[in-house]
Amino acid sequence: MQPLAYRMRPTNIDEVVGQQHLVGPGKIIRRMVAAKMLSSMILYGPPGTGKTSIASAIAGSTHYAFRMLNAATDSKKDLQIVAEEAKMSGTVILLLDEIHRLDKTKQDFLLPHLENGRIILIGATTENPYIAINPAIRSRTQIFEVKPLSEAAIKTAVERALKDKERGLGQQPVELTATAEKFLTQATNGDLRSALNGLELAVKSTPATAGTITITLPIIEECIQRKAISGDKDGDAHYDVISAFQKSIRGSDVDAALHYMGRLIETGDLPTITRRLMVIAYEDIGLGNPQACARTVAAVTAAEKLGFPEARIPLADAVIDLALSPKSNSGIVAIDAALADIRAGKAGSVPDQLRDAHYQGAAKLQHGVGYKYPHDYPNDWVKQQYLPERLKQATYYQPKNNGKYEKALAAQYHRLLAAQRH
């Protein structure tokens, strides 16, 4: 009766899907396991991304006892039982879900057990631990961010579940069509739990035909309650819609931008929408209207806190704001021009007067000698060379005149550039 996602939890570190920045070769959690030098930690990130799986894998790889509790619903007495077990039999790995809801009484009980190492705490939370978790717990743990899984990682886990005859669906004659599999990996937005549980529902609720349970795209859509966008059965339209979304805002067509975002909303793809809006704000609007960029950050934060369906409201406000704002891509053009010089080997040496002078002997090397402190001069500016000698005539920023803010920046830039080269 256990869900497929529960049954397929990894039994050792090698079975963890994704999160290679933590469990890949040479990475921190794998190093801990290999050295058998575990420390308490907090894993934070979106639901279904592997927090519990990593804890289970650590326990399986180290052969320590593994217990799971919830900080919100389990009592201090439950913690006491774990502590007694640790005292009797040695180290216990405790996965404490929703650790941000740990009250002071339970926290005070846990702290000495974390100090002496009898309990290795692995806290799991969807909240930012630097904000939501008490400093006393934070100071005794390492904090690791768990990220949404890639489509490739979810595909690996799905195929593993279909083949596994003991824990998975391997004993059933399942055929998952390519289009259904692709949509399953895309539409669950990096949430492996949703993908596996949706797959299991599809398999168990679909009758076999000619001895085979065939899972098609419409069945997966129904079981995960998401619709394939644009009717594109191959899923390729997902990227076309994202492209059209940005290009519509860049082109100031607010209605088209709302339409394409609506299609992304229908798939429940909040991470793609919010990330793309942040990129658009700074790439396409930028200095044309910096306040719109700031408002977009606020709207994204609100949307992530609210979740769907309410998230659509601040997102719509941001799209309208960005689409109708003055546009400027001068920021991205400027940094890319600077990078092009650097990558072409045109970096040059930092001028001596700008070099670090905060160490004994710097003056003998002429480092920092002759530097003019701008605040000592009228208007807090003085002419001096900042670029390396070989690049002293280089210019990267090309101002645009589409908004009041950048017009003012442009006037200041040209005025300072003329004074510097006069």
UniProtKB/TrEMBL annotation:
Alphabetically ordered keywords of this record: ATP-binding, Nucleotide-binding
InterPro entries, per database record: AAA+_ATPase, AAA_assoc_2, AAA_ATPase_RarA/MGS1/WRNIP1, ATPase_AAA_core, DNA_pol3_clamp-load_cplx_C, MgsA_C, P-loop_NTPase
Domain AAA+ ATPase: 37-149
A Pfam family hit: MgsA_C
SUPFAM superfamilies, per database record: P-loop containing nucleoside triphosphate hydrolases, post-AAA+ oligomerization domain-like
Keyword Nucleotide-binding attached: yes
Domain of life: Bacteria
Keyword match Lyase: no
Family: Belongs to the AAA ATPase family. RarA/MGS1/WRNIP1 subfamily.
Protein name, per record: Replication-associated recombination protein A
Highest classification ranks of the organism: Bacteria, Bacillati, Bacillota, Bacilli, Lactobacillales
